[in-house]
Amino acid sequence: MKNLSRLLNPRSIAFIGGHECAVAIRRSRELGFAGTIYAVHPKREDLAGVPTLRSVDDIPGTVDAAFVAVKREPTIEVVRALAGKGCGGAVIYAAGFAETGNADLQQQLLAAAAGMPLMGPNCYGFVNTLARAALWPDETGLEPVARGVALITQSGNIACNFTMMMRGLPVAAVYSIGNQVDVGMHDMVEALSADPRISAIGLHVEGLPDVPAFARAASLARRRRVPIVVLKTGRSEQGAKVAMSHTSSLAGADSLYDALFERYGIARMTSVSAFAETLKFLHNGGPVAGSRLVSLSCSGGEAALVADMALDRNVSFPPFDAETKPRVAATLNEYVAIDNPLDYHTFIWGQPEKLTATFTEVLKGGFDVGMVILATPTHPKMKPDSW
């Protein structure tokens, strides 16, 4: 297992480059980064107000992490200098390596690191709100949280979009790892599943260069009770071609990925919406013991819809047992059929004591997951308090 603790949770950061570094410095300050920041540029006097040093060699002592945003050829020498100073790891922003056919140049980059962890190349880096650190050259919608999910992707733009989600999902960190020349998806899963502040891990996967290592990491996360949700692209022939040209990732037979994810208890989603909502569910409730669901709604139409959604899925809506059914019935009137999913009608709307009694008896019924369907009006002409 790579030691990524200094890179992912830095107390000192060196930003090496121009405009992208100035943006990243501002993002870190906006998050409240309290550590030491160094700026390196051969000509500019400052980056985002931080006086510049002329080279990596001018950095006093060592640093925990570096964001390297220079052209691809100079990147190699910068990485060699950082490794020589004992840097804890570097994010490599530059593109034009294996994803464009320059595999040899990418290997030179890895050799220059001499064991120092490298994230990238061809990557956006990361925003870690737990460490208040942003080695990140763009906008971000993240705010610091005490606990949340971690999202890992090979795509910089998808990573940027992940930071902007407005779905009530607490996101602790977003990582864009690019070509994975060194730090791979498996390294990130191993490191993040060891952090008690990470409630679940979401992966956007184009391809896995080291399947056995990923399997070991997934197994470790499972033992640690940190659930993983994956959004795997490249299911189509066209998608697989894009993955290869984007980050030099061989998508492989999609059915094999399905088998891998099923074997290690990883939930695969096929849309960003399902990906985000599953992570939200796992953040709030954690992995569940079983698949027995109960649903509460005040509409027969909604009850029928949710019942149909269980088809072809490994969940069920079992009927209330002999003890629970009469207790639920006692909280409602004779017009309500006591079934699961339960349509409790509108008779007890606006009566908190009666609603509480019904919900309490239903949720005491021995189910693994209870779900409540609520509709709140958002139209400006409607008054939410009437609901």
Structure description:
Helices cover 34% and strands 19% of the residues. The protein has 387 residues and is an alpha/beta fold. The strands form three sheets. The chain has a seven-stranded mixed sheet. Helix 3 links the parallel strand 5 and strand 6. The chain is elongated and about 80 Å long.
Strand and helix map with partners:
Blueprint: H1 5-8, E1 12-17, H2 19-31, E2 36-40, E3 46-47, E4 50-53, E5 65-69, H3 72-84, E6 90-92, H4 103-113, E7 118-119, E8 125-128, E9 133-135, E10 148-153, H5 156-162, E11 171-176, H6 185-193, E12 198-205, H7 211-223, E13 228-232, H8 237-247, H9 254-263, E14 267-269, H10 272-285, E15 293-297, H11 300-309, H12 324-329, E16 342-343, H13 352-363, E17 369-372
Parallel strand pairs: 1-2, 1-5, 2-4, 5-6, 6-7, 10-11, 10-12, 12-13, 13-14, 15-16, 15-17
Antiparallel strand pairs: 3-4, 8-9, 8-11
Helix pairs in contact: 3-4, 6-7
Trace the largest sheet across and list its strands: 3-4-2-1-5-6-7
Number of helices: 13
Q: Major sheet: size, sense and barrel closure? A: 7 strands, mixed
Strand content: 15-25%
Order of helices and strands: HEHEEEEHEHEEEEHEHEHEHHEHEHHEHE
What tags apply to this protein structure?
7-stranded mixed sheet; elongated; alpha/beta; 387 residues
Brief overview:
The protein is α/β, with parallel strands linked by helices. The chain has helices at 5-8, 19-31, 72-84, 103-113, 156-162, 185-193, 211-223, 237-247, 254-263, 272-285, 300-309, 324-329, 352-363; strands at residues 12-17, 36-40, 46-47, 50-53, 65-69, 90-92, 118-119, 125-128, 133-135, 148-153, 171-176, 198-205, 228-232, 267-269, 293-297, 342-343, 369-372. Helix 7 (211-223) links the parallel strand 12 (198-205) and strand 13 (228-232).
